[in-house]
Design brief:
There is one protein chain. This protein is mainly β. It is built from three helices and 27 strands. Strands 1, 2, 3, 4, 5, 6, 7 and 8 form an eight-stranded mixed beta sheet that branches. The chain starts with a helix and ends in a 6-residue tail after the last strand.
């Protein structure tokens, strides 16, 4: 019984102690005005009672950036001490750190470095060099699809986000966008607009500038039989040498690039300058062949094909909405019977696409046909 009473008294004493003293308090929180390039040393103490931390020391270092810059926080300790950095608006926060770290800080913002733990430490904040760019390849080719190129840099990702500019030397040939993908790397994506040579410039403020030469080496061209125009030449390339891959379909003057489209079909024209070759993928439309295939298509979809009437046939060019390409087209104005036997009037438009297959549209306005000319209705039957 006496042992039980003694045990109860001991428990009551411990409870009373913890009821009087808080479990944890800040003992010595000291604020300092931090100057860049100056080393600061300090000692933090922690008080414990019965193995429970009762109080901690904190050191706060306050400073404001006069200029946006990469900054190195050099930190050394052999004790259980850590640091963290945050801005006054909490938009920047490094989290808890135990080693030196490179960070990017912004002009005009106020920052606080908090040092906590137990033991001795030393800390120093110095301005660091601007990011420096690196490119593995300085040039590349692309066709009609986008091309993404990787690059890397020293320094910090936040510095790159604020200070990197990537521009195209000729937006008519290709446009460019970029993004930072990690703390040490990023990508830029080139979108081709027309065939040619264009220089992409990467410029890091305060750092270096690199150039990437992009060659847009493919384009599509849609023409009609009998065309004698010049092939679309690569922009920025002087006096290339031309060649036709199918002289039965079309020939080309090797110096001027002027063509002679002999028959319907597909042909590639190549313009070569030095080690770079540019390809013009060309579809030559024979209006008579296209007309006959269009007539056949109409007969396959109407009621009573034997009563089909062809009123007008037009040929010319039009710009396709989904690609913006100028293509040769045929429009057939026809009449066919509906389910009740009455004659209804409709239109069908046809053109070749980039794989030389016929595409059809069921409605069209003939006023949209560029260079419109009439064809004899009998010529497509």
């Amino acid at each position: 019984m006496k042992k039980l009473v003694s045990l109860l008294l001991a428990v009551m004493m411990v409870v009373s102690i913890f009821a009087i003293v808080p479990l944890s308090v800040d003992a010595a929180s000291t604020n300092f005005s931090l100057a860049l390039n100056k080393k600061y040393s300090g000692t933090l103490e922690t008080t414990s009672l019965y193995g429970v931390v009762m109080s901690r020391d904190y050191h706060y270092y306050n400073f404001t950036m006069s200029k946006s810059s990469n900054v190195k926080v050099s930190f050394s300790t052999k004790a259980d001490v850590s640091w963290s950095l945050r801005s006054s608006d909490y938009s920047d926060n490094t989290g808890t750190q135990t080693k030196s770290k490179l960070v990017y800080l912004t002009k005009g913002k106020s920052y606080t470095i908090t040092v906590s733990g137990s033991g001795k430490y030393a800390i120093k904040v110095t301005k660091a060099a601007a990011n420096k760019l690196k490119l593995k390849n300085k040039s590349g080719k692309l066709g009609t699809s986008n091309k993404t190129v990787k690059f890397s840099f020293s320094g910090t990702g936040d510095y790159a986000i604020d200070n990197l500019k990537v521009t195209s030397g000729n937006k008519k040939i290709a446009t460019v966008t970029h993004r930072i993908t990690s703390s040490k790397s990023g990508t830029f994506t080139i979108t081709p607009k027309k065939m040619g040579k264009v220089v992409i410039t990467l410029k890091m403020k305060g750092g270096n500038k690199l150039k990437y030469t992009a060659y847009v080496t493919k384009t599509y061209w849609f023409i009609a039989k009998g065309c004698k125009s010049k092939a679309p030449a690569p922009a920025g390339v002087k006096k290339p040498t031309w060649k036709s891959a199918n002289k039965k379909v079309a020939t080309i003057n090797k110096k001027t690039g002027k063509i002679n489209a002999k028959k319907g079909g597909r042909v590639n024209f190549t313009a070569k300058k030095g080690k770079i070759s540019y390809k013009v993928i060309t579809v030559v439309t024979d209006y008579k062949v296209l007309g006959k295939k269009t007539y056949k298509k109409i007969k396959s979809v109407v009621n009573n094909p034997e009563k089909l009437k062809i009123y007008n046939v037009y040929r010319g060019y039009s710009k396709l909405v989904y690609t913006g390409k100028k293509v040769p087209i045929i429009m057939v104005d026809y009449g066919s019977t509906n389910d009740y036997g009455a004659m209804t009037r409709k239109k069908m438009v046809a053109w070749y696409d980039d794989v030389h297959e016929i595409k059809y549209a069921t409605s069209w306005d003939e006023d949209n046909i560029i260079g419109k000319k009439s064809m004899s209705p009998s010529s497509i039957k």
